[in-house]
Amino acid sequence: MLRRTTGRTGAECMNELFQRDIETSEAWALVAEKEHIYRELFTPVFAEVAGFKAFARLAAAQGLKVGVGTAGDKHNIAFALTGLGMQLAPHAVVGGDEGLPGKPEARHFSGSGAAHGHCGRRLHRF
Fold first, then answer.
1. Are the CB atoms for 27 and 14 separated by under 8 Å?
2. Are the C-beta atoms of residues 54 and 88 closer than 8 Å to each other?
3. What is the pLDDT of residue 98?
4. How far apart, in whole angstroms, are the C-alpha atoms of residue 38 and residue 45?
5. Hey, which residues does 68 pair with through a beta bridge?
6. Which of these ranges, 10-14, 24-28, 81-85, 111-115, has the smallest mean pLDDT?
7. pTM of the predicted protein model
8. Are 74 and 95 in contact (CB under 8 A)?
9. Which among 9, 5, 33, 25 is positioned nearest to 17, based on CA atoms?
């Protein structure tokens, strides 16, 4: 399944999962339901990746801009940022619901850099 869905939108993944063409609006409704369930299940165990907030603070203290590029939608982004309780918000946030392809192209990662006016060697992604 992972091999067949990598780089596809959530709606495209629903077509693959159900092995049929699903009306676009229905597919996105299923994606929204799946993500809502994910957030409900993940809330009790949500935790920072060790050292992330310290890294973000140090980067900001050195004048570096921090951007978030994710395949997650605006609701998952809000979930993560709220759960992290970050004092400094990222300078730019680019999510999967902005129409950019996911992995392996992952243009949403470079999109957060472009929002800063950075690209190429000046943009560090991880």
1. yes
2. no
3. 72
4. 11
5. 93
6. 111-115
7. 0.74
8. yes
9. 5
